[in-house]
Amino acid sequence: MFFSGFPRMVGLSFFPRLCQLTIVGQNIKHIEALECCPLLQELWVVECHLTEISGLQNCLQLEKLFLYDNQICEVNNLELQISLEVLWLNNNCITQIQGLNTLQNLKELNLADNNIEKIGHSLDPNASLQNLNLSGNKISSFKELTLLARLPHLRELALKDPTSTPNPVCLLCNYATHVLYHVPGLQRLDTYDVSSKQIKEAAESTVMKKMMYYNMRVRTAQRNLAEARLRLTERKKTMLQLPEECIRTITQAIKNLERELSKVPAGCKKSACMSEDGLTHLVEGDPTTDGRDPALEHKVLNKIEALKERLVLWTRRLDEIEAWYKQDSGQATNMMEYTVQFLLMELESVGNIRLEEGCPTDPWFTSCCDLLLSRFSQSDFKVHNITGIKINRVIRIHNSALRLRFEDKLHTLLTSEKSATFSQNYRRWLEYLFYIADPEKNNEKEEILRIVEEGFKAAEQYKALEVEGAILLSNSLSVTEQPRIEHALRQASQDDSEHSEDTIPFRHGQLIVSKVFVGHSMPIQEGDLVDRSSYPRFYSVYRNVDTKYRTAVSEERPRFSKTHTGPECGPRRRQWFVFEHELVLPEYIIYFEYITGDGEQPALLGHSTGRHDISSNDIILDKEALNMEPVLKPQPTLLSLDDKILLNVARANVLSQITVLNLHGNSLSKIKEISRLTALRHLTISFNDFTRLDDISHMPNLEFLDASFNNIATLEGLRALGQLKQLDVRWNKLTRAREDTAVLRKHTPALLKLDTRYNPWNRLKAVRMTILGHLTTLTHLDDKMVAEEEAAEAVQMAAGCKINQASLLAHSRTNSERPRSLSQLSTAQLLCLLSPASWGLSQELDIDWTAKITTLNLDSQRIPKLINLNKLVNLRWASFNDNDISKVEGLDSCSKLEELSLNNNNISTLGGLPKLHCLNKLSVDGNQLSSLDASVLDQLPNLSFLSVENNRISSLHGIHRVRSLLELYIGNNQISTSQDIYYLKGLTNLIILDLYGNPLLEKLENYRIYVVFHLPSLKALDGIAVEVTEFKSAKDMYGGRLTSDMVTEKLGHSNYTDITCLTLQSCSIRTVDLCPADLFCNLLSVNLDHNNLTSFSGIIYLPKIKALCLNYNHIESILPRQKNHLTNKQILYSKVQSSGYGQQGPPKGKGETGPTCSLEPLMGSLEVLHLSHNGISNMANLQLSRLTNLKALFLQGNEISQVEGLEGLQKLRELVLDRNRIKALANNSFIAQSLLLELHLAENRIRELNHLDPLTELRKLFLGKNKLQDITELDKLEVLPSLTELSIVGNPVAKNSLYRPAVVLRLSQLQVLDGVMVTLEERTRAELHSTDQPPCSQCPGASLAATEINLPGLLPLMPRHTPIRGISTGLQNLMHGHDVLPSNVDEAQSHYIDKHKKHRHSNGARSGQTGITFGHIRRTGNNPTTTGLLPDGNRVIITYPIQEQDSRFPNGGKPPPM
User: Which DSSP helix (H) or strand (E) runs through 1071?
Assistant: First the structure.
């Protein structure tokens, strides 16, 4: 049916079978007359004037209800419509989602265009909801959107539908990412299709990275707290030294006096004897005399009383220090908790709330400090002896939602005001005011966090809390602080449980500084009602505060740079009452403390001048008390016991009669003889050297034992003390309360009084409850009476220490999925916090109830052992933090476990984890781990998070097995070597690493840059994000640096002394830093071909290196070049060649090589050096003369044009200069090479053969492929008397048919020419030819084919199988010591000519050359070496058995001069 013109719903009784009813645009205010339509399934009452939902109680089959465009203010009266599937209530006046609890079949809900600010948990029962429209509302918090994760079937969500205005939250950053993460099942968001898998994965990845980042920052805050506590603890120890020393001295004196008193049995008389040294001491009265000295006894008692007074004073001092420590530690904890809450707030708001920590360099930080100081008046606090304030911390609040709300509201007000003056001068009404939560009505921390996140409450909400109906602010610190100060003073007067050194209980405070638009305001009087209805035309009101001490503060105070005072706001102190909460924007949080009149803070306790004077005075008083009469004679110290000593000390005749024994103040560590004193009832062994009490066993009558002031580390060993009623173990070294209590429970069943104070207990807070829970007979503990309630609570806690059915039921959950929450809690903690217990107390359990458990949280249950977990086969998330577990066991059946937390236990090994193959998150902080078991980690292929902070791990060996690792927290361990960083290099997925607190950070220079260089995938290190500039700095500093760590990485071990040969080709090495060089004491050969070295760098320090290969680098000099720092004037002059000003010295002549000859020698053991293909153009710059022991030098393939700089190489045997640009030889080129045996100058540009005369020992000369044209140049070779092999092939002169006979004729010692043996027949033929033909010089320019020199009738030049000494074609054969000869000399010659062209740039040949050199060095030791040119361009090493002197590293190993 469709009606129009229908002002009231009447006449529907005629349609009892009505299924659908639509009413549009009518003046209907109430739904009525539907009682006769029980079959109604669809109802439309839209665009009417409905003010409420009613009249549907009989429509039980209603499935669709459309009530949009009405004036409905509240959702109610729908409890019976359980079949409802579609509900449209858009365009109404609804402010709160409610009344939908029973609509469990609801699939579509439209609440668009209402005034809803919060979602809350009102939709949790509507689990079937698929389509939800909340557009056009006032939702501003991401937290509200998080609650939508509870709707598992939600597929469509609209928060900024195009037909509505968007919610404020939709204007914030990362809105869509946040929604998609929390509601992963969404198909459409705000009309957009978001069903793509890529979109979901992107959102998931973004949020996970955010969570990892904030987890790291939270851990950093917690670590900072731990460090602060450690500093406080260290300071506390220092402060305790003097009181503890004084207590020890006084206590020992008291016990000495008491021992003297106890020596006289009851009824016996006491007398005083004067000893020989003049000191009075008490002795047992002489039985033969009846005299006694009551005055002396009175003196003793007086002295004991005086000493006890001093003891009380020092004990109070201990309590004061402990109170100070607790206060400062509590304050540090409070600051950390704030920081953590701020970080979590940032995370949950996806960065739309950000808390910025201020520092003195920030202008806003300074402005805040100035503002607070300007609003502080000392006169207001004079009664508390406060003289100033100290600002400890300033936090800047960035809340996008609140700022948008503030600006929108302000804009609305400005546009609504008719006055143009108001709009132009609105800044005059902006003020910065203070707010502090009233401690009587609010939790201070919760209130501050709520304001930071949500802003201030509306005025109506404050009124509902029975406070003023407005936001209370002030421009004065004293006015703002008054409620907190009064509350703190009342609390302090009521709380007398502990003495606090701090006389100001409100010393530390925090306040919020807000930007406030006070607008039109008016003053009110004290007692006036503050309510918006009373002042409808004003935005705020204020009350002037009348103070007695109003001085010149107002006139002198500096103005806050951002404060604007309106006409109504004078300099007077005022309380402001602001009615519009949107006009109050929190911007800063300031943490401060008050400074007292004496200028001293509790933190300075024991270190100030006043305290020092007090302590000095106390020590004087102590000495006066100790020196009071009588002064006891020192007693002899007992080192051991026997029967005689026991009888003497106890003043008894028979051991069985001894009931009281005082062994105080000796040096005893064992008392085995004590076991025979079966009647002993009272034993004192204080002030000895006991570490254990094993000897005090099986003493059935012992009732009292004083073992204070010893070094007892454990009570293990006490046995069978059935009557012991009182035990004193103060001032010892006990640490493990649970173990020691277990001993006492078993062996001292009658114990009534126990004193355990002043021991270094682990987990001190839990010690008392642990002891009381196990020792139920105690009436006094630590000199305090045990209350029945306290004892009962302790027993109850102790009973829950084992994992049993009750604990499993109470602490387990059966959820199948992890909550979509941004909380930093572990999954087990989160599920147990958010989900109700899976089983009720009276619920009957299924047989397989344990198999349903997925979550187990047994934190802080004092569990000693993991048991009864074998049936939890589906356990996925488990937490056992803060227990006493010493071994990981009992988890083998939990093969589905994904997260495991075992923080703060006593675990020493990770054994017990290998079967947890699904584990992806493991936390074992605060245990006793000393290593990472590689065999265990190898079985955890899915582990992505590992935290082992605060253990004793000394090496990262084994961590490389966990290749899936993303986060590693291993701070505060004992990792100390840079080698451990190499274990991390295989973790290519690692993005967060925390090594903070390890010795490595102090030992390793440039630690952070070093780690960043070796782990380029890192995004954060030690809680700080890695910047791009750090990667660049790391690359600049460590890129191409050969270090011992790099050697370890390449070779797989760090046994540097075993390395004799090191080959690292093509590793991009730029510098060598093998420190200390002594580690490489046996290194003989180094091959660094194909790198980026420009100098020998750190190689020069290697002590025994013999062969060095640096081919294909960029070597410019042996030592790094020093940069010349020239002035601008010098640079200018150097550019003008004719001026001469820029030259540093006279120009060098062509033959001068500079000062290299006078430089100190280097690398005294080096014999073979390869520097081919380095682009060298100037040999003098290389400073090769410093390598005085060099025997073979290879410089082929460079840009050398002049042979120079070899003056110091007097032992050189072989020199290779092939393939350079040499045109001529200078007169000093070979001036010092009198021992040179082999010279290679092939493929240069040599035209003349001058200045070879110093080479008297030269045997081989290779001049192939040069520019020799005139055959007369070859006559100059006659100056080489020892030449046996010559190569001129490839020169123009070699084309002359007569050049070979001429050379053979001139060089009588020549054996090989151009690779061919010179035979006797050839030499004879040359001599005959010389007599028949004119000299070649007479036939210039003659050029015949080379074959024409073979005259008819002559034999071949060389037999087919004639061996040629020194020539070989096989590289591998030479390395194995074999001679391989060419099968034909012609083949050899043609091979040399043709193949040399093909392979002139072959890398393989060079590599082979290097291998031969190294192999030869190892075989021949110090014998001089030389090489021959093979047909394929390789060298053959020839050993000359010449005895050389040992050369040592010059200058005693000191660095050579640059």
Answer: strand 1071-1073
